[in-house]
Every structure is written in structure tokens, then in C-alpha cells.
Sequence to fold (592 residues):
Amino acid sequence: MNSAIEVNNLTKVYGSPGTGVLAVDHISFEVQQGEIFGFLGPNGAGKTTTQRMLTTLLEPTEGRIVVFGHDLTSDAYPVKRQMGLVPEESNIYTELTAWDNLMFTASLYRVPRAQRAERVQHWLEAFGLWEKRDVKAASFSKGMRRRLSIAMAIIHRPTLLFLDEPTPGLDAQSARVIRDLIRQLNSQGTTIFLTTHQIEEANLLCDRVAIINNGRIAAIDTPERLKATFRRVQSVEVALEPNGSAHGPALAALPGVTTATKMGDKQRLYTEDPSTLLLQITDYARANSLRIVSLNTLGPSLEDVFLEITGQQVGTVRHEEQEQKGGRRRMGGGQ
Amino acid sequence: MRERWMQRIGDELAQAWTVAVKDVRVYYMTAPMIMFGLLLPFFLFFSFSVKRDVAADVGMARLLALTTFFTASSAGPVIIPMERRTGAYDRLLAAPMSVVTLLGGKMLVGALFAIMVSLVPLLIGVLFLNVTVASVGFLLAGIVFASLAFSAFGLLFGSIPTGSATAVGSIMMPSTLVRWPLLFISGVFIPLAEMSPTMRAVAYLSPLTYAQDLMNHAVLRAGQINPWLDLAVLIASVILLLAPSVWMHQRSRQLGY
Fold:
């Protein structure tokens, strides 16, 4: 498989190199053609800065970006023709109708004149905006604006699509339409670069994810392999009666429990050894005459992995460094 | 290879036109903009002409220079920061076209607006005040190139790469501070002939001086500078004023604003 994006030693310093703010710190990664690549990270980690460099909106301080074999510094024009960009804010023209917004973008990207109206109609229908085609976008809901913004980014059939936080704040229906569209575009060969802090979305959509923290790539792998790497964030979820929540502190003190979190009427107990903990919980329930309403073992979610890597306190209390496996970078501590 | 470049040039010209048409529809065809474009030059003219016994032809020459200057340079400082704030500018910057094309489109629309607005004083002067135009060629060339130059002048302020560039107010301040003094040093209200040598030397630095002088040649058949030189300076000003905007856009890419 060929690379769609190759990033080498990419660095961005806002301000003077000596005294400025280091936003992206010598990161390197590849995105393969036809892949949905998730770029995850907490706020201020360097996600948007990286994406702005990849889309030519920002000049790197250092490093090299090659997209479809073209160096972005010296040969950006052919890349721009193949690229679509959906920024975090829906950047539509609210003074124009949905139809005019799309016709403007089609003209800007030099879609052949004879095909413009047909394509515009296709995407307006696909996004459920056809009935509103002659309405000014100022009266559109957030979801409608988002859909129009995405339609504007794909009207020229890009082979590489950048999406920055495409679904936050949307209703479930709009979010599903957008996720389905991402899958559909990808199945037609479009490479997707998805910047998000919605971990479940990345888990559902992405072939691979990179986790960026403090401007550095902390991990890159498939969601399942990342989860497998973090066996210690496995957990047991238990609901006890009567008065189950009163037993939280006692359950948290059971041997092998690293962290306990109250989840509604349940307790989630994180452990490296769920099978032993299951026995301890049943013993505890029997000894205290409690009824077990539900008892489940849970593997690490991508959210757990994300929080572990970015050093945020959910799921684990210990932050042991894990050695790289299979050539992967050291996790949790950056590069 | 040649065909590819011809195709590219054709695409870039079409994209500049696309940007211009979009700006007309989004920003210029609005009631406040039209009222501003039409009324401000008249207010300015009357405020400096009342009780000064200004002849109709002199007034029209002044008004043409004022109209092109104010209308062409007024939108540039506003539109780019506004589009940066909404994120719409990112779409334009990420599109497959050069910054020159993008700015060219924006310059074109500012100039077209100024040309249309300048027709109002021209028609009023010719039709109702019996003003005769001495040189139609210089008049049209003057209006067109002055409008382009002043539109590029307005874009200069919108292109300033400051951390607060997204705030329209922070751009309007330097724009106003530079544009208003130009009125007084460019021979619009105080003719070049009545200026001291020092003032005149300063006046020659302003492109508005050459626009006013060319209008004087075209309407009054009287100017202080060779009209061809006026025209040449206005044409050169288009490039000289657009170049820093291109550079500032490049600087914005480095700074991240």
C-alpha cells in the first residue's frame, strides 16, 4: 500500500524559535492510501496545528510533509487539488443559499461546468438539504450547517479528506449521517484524516489512530492493538443490593484494585487480574449478605488507553511506563 | 507543459472571478455597504466645500477621486479579518489557487464597487450640472486604475498578520489613521499648486495625489503632473500595494494567525 501522507520530524513553534511556544515537537508518521486515520489528543495537544500544517494553512518551523509524493513546501498545488478540508467550525457563507454555497465551491475547485449542478443536487439530496436548497444558510441548524460544510469539502471529489471534529455538538441523527458518509467515502477510496477528541468515534471509524500529547506522538496503532497493550486497564463492573453504593470504599480496597469509579448504581473496579477480582467480589458479597445484581468484566476501552497515555486520572492510579512492543514508541512518556 | 500552464492561468483567472462574485453577493450587495459607498464621499465633499464657492467641475473632479479612494479601500480592511474569524478564509487559502489570485479577486471586487459608485457623481455632474469631460480616456483609465490601486491599498490592512487580526476593530484603527490624513496631503482639498514645497514632496508619496491630478486633467484640463505619469504611478501602485499583502499572507502562515 502506498503512503498518502508522510510526515518527518514535523515541528511548529509559534513565535521565535528560541522563545516561542512549541506546539508540535518533531513528530513523524505515515498515513496509508485508503485508510481512515484518527488523530487523537486532548485540547492543546497539537492536533489542529498539525492538521493546519498538513493542509498548507500553516508553515512548519521544521520538518517535511509529503502528500501523494508531492513535497508540500515546494509543490503544494497538485495536493490542494486532491484535498478536501472540513474545519472544526462550519465555515459556510450564511448570506448564501445552500445551493449557492455549493456552486461557489464547485467553481472554486474548477469542477467542470457541465457537472456542477448535477453534483450539487446529488450532495444536497444525500445530506437531506435538497428541500432547503434555496434557503439562506443563516437559518440552518448546527447539524445542517455541518452537513453543508462537509458537502462543500467533497464537491470536487477529493482523494484525501481532512475532518476536524466533525460531529461534536450534533444530534445523534446528524452524527450518524456524517459517520456513514465517512465510511462511504472511504469505501470509494478516499483517504480520511480525522482529527478528534471523541474517542468512541475514532474507535468506530478508524483503521489506525495516533495519539498526540504535549506536541508529541505518544502512540500509533490500530485501536484493538492499543487496547491490548493496556491490559492493566481491564475492569470489573459490579452492582450490589441492598445499598450497593455504600460498599464502594470497601470494594476499592480489595487486593488488586488499582482504581474504583462509581458508574451510576455500579462500581467499576480497574485491575490487571479480573479473574481473581471476580472471586473476591463474590466472597465479599456472600460475607456481607449482598445480592449481586450484575457482574461484568470489561476490556480496556480506547478511552482508557487515551487517558492512560495522556496521563489523565481515570481508570488507573499507577502510571508505569510500558516498554515498546514491536518497535512501537514508548507510551505514556512521549517519544 | 505550455498547455498545462495555460490551463493553470485560465483556472486562476476563473477562480479570482469566482471569489469576486462571491464577495459581491455576500458583502457588497447589502444595504449598509451601498449606503456607505454612496453617502460618505458626498458628506465628505460637502463638509469641505460648503461656503467655499467650489465650481461644479472642480467639485466633480474632487468627488471622483474621493469616491474611488473611499469606496475601493473601505471593504478590504473588513472582509479578510471577518472571513478569518468565521473560518471561511481557510477554505479560500486551502483551495488550489495562489494567494495572488485570491487577493486579485478581492481587489477586483473592491475596484468594481468603486467604479460603479463613482458613476453617480460622474452622471450627476455631466447630466445635471453641465460639466464637460475634457478627456474621456484619462477619466476612464483614472477611475479604473485608481479604483484598483485603492482596493489593493485596503487589502493591505486586512492582511496585517497580528495576533488580533481576527478582530475587525483592530484593523479599522490603523486603516482609518492612515486613510484620513491622506485626504489632506494629496491635493484633494488643498490643490498641489497651493502647497509648500515640503508638503508637495510628501504629497508625491501618496497614490491619491496622482488620482486627483489625473481627474483634474480629465475634467478640468489642468493638472500639476504629466497625466501619463499619473497613470503610470497608479498602475505601479496596484502592484506595489498588492505585493506587501502577498508577503503578509506568507508571514501569517509562518506565525499562525
